[in-house]
Write a structure and sequence with these properties.
heterodimer, A: mainly alpha, 14 helices, about 0% strand, B: mainly alpha, MetI-like fold, globular
Chain lengths: ~280, ~300
Amino acid sequence: MSSSRARGERLSSVALHGALVVFGALSLIPLLWMLSASFMATGEASTFPPALLPHHPTLAHYEDLFGRLALGRYALNSAFVAIVTTAGALMINAAAGYAFAKLRFRGRDRTFRVLAAGLAIPVQVAMLPLFLLIKSLGLVNNYGGVIIPGLSSIFGIFLVRQYALAIPDDLLDAARIDGASEFRVFRSIVLPTIRPVLATLALWTFLATWNDFMWPLIVLSDDRKYTLPVALAGLVGEHAQDVELMMAGAVITVLPVLILFLMLQRYFVEGVTEGSVK
Amino acid sequence: MSTPRARFTTRIAPGWWFVAPALLLIVVFFAGPVLAAIGLSFTDFDLYALADPGAARWIGLRNYARVLHEPLFWQALGNTLYFAVVGGPLTIAASLGAALLVNARAVRWKSTARTVFFAPFVTTLVAVAIVWRYLYHPRYGLLNYLLGLLHVAPIDWLGNPHWAMPAIILMATWKNFGYNMLICIAGLQSIPRELYEAAALDGASAWQRFRHVTLPMLAPTLFFVVIVTMIGYLQLFTEPYVMTQGGPLRATTSLVLYMYEEGFRWWRLGVAAAIAFLLFVLIVAFTVVQRWLSPRGMAGA
């Protein structure tokens, strides 16, 4: 009896781990193949049966991308847009999220409810008039047109508010009694206390901005100003046959966010679970 | 103390100063444009109006009439619903499967598995859509090769109108299941241990425990994430833009891609705004269903 039960458990453990490996392989194969193909010689990825590993690994496509095709410029553009958006969004959403959680002012709760309702509106609805607005401000084909609409996000305000609700009021009142201004309280007490959620917000903003495609595609018309995803989508139009070259381009685009994720995944996970329970 | 600054800040509550930058940005760059979109959809705003906004005229509901008479609109609507209604539940099924695996007591390497499953979600959609274009290659693609090992004849994934949307759904499932997996794990961990212990004492098998404890306890979470995922999927754009350009035979043209083409390729901004607003109505309908299905406490915000 007990030995058959132990055998059953061992069997189910094998089945579970088998399923785990299959799931893991499915998740990783596209990314591993991308990496592998990026080191293949031209044409090697278009053979049958498909080559899994490069025969003679080469960096030629990376050299081509950074040299002739100037992908380095797009990487810098992307980094600039993502870093500026993230820095601005941190300050703006942190201040608003904290105020909605901890400061009393007339109309606060009603304002917050209106914001919450806004979460249901898809961004695409705003895009056409937003483009006309950006155009009238002279920000078409300008990074300002990409960055400014992304500086404030309802999701970001939610995230910070949720976390800031847990700050003890006594802590804030003690500082106020000592004569600290509200700004001072925010800077020297609130910001250090909510640092974990700021990390989460920064990562999600950076990720969303780096990966964003539709809005920069609309705003940026000069190809020297493209961000990486827009440049890559343009490149595949001209070089669709150059599989290995395109894979190198995909690696360059994906690698920064993957590395960021691997280093700081704890904060990513918190963003998901915080955002889902609201 | 009556320095000018102190007087100034007491007149307006400090809370308003903290929320002002965020609210100003949201009003100017989001709320305002959303309202303006409704107005724009009632005008014949086009390429000429782009040069001289005074040239746009009020044409009432004519954009809506035009769009609703356009076969392409109905095709795009059908494609979008196909993607959302099939892709949403499929993604959540994969999420739940992965969550159950990662959460199983006998399983080792939990945190590694979680990292691996979540990795596709953080990647750049444009880049991985290009990768999948090649995985789907009818002759040299890895997918057809693997299917060939199982004696499945090669499929022209992105070139055949019947297969293009399933191919995009498969890719989106791969990309997104890790996100909802994390939510499912949190849901699984909130199920009280005692329920499983009681079921085990009653002699329930693993399947019975899943069927009668896990599923009912998780149902609210699952409903919630399925509908939220479908709402996200209604905004399909990048995958068809990069992988199929909406083809073949318009089989993967989504509502947002259709809106993008009308608005930013042909500069018919009035028509595009009408499409955007119809998409909005569709999303509101899904949101209402979601609120209606969600038990108290899961209704989001």
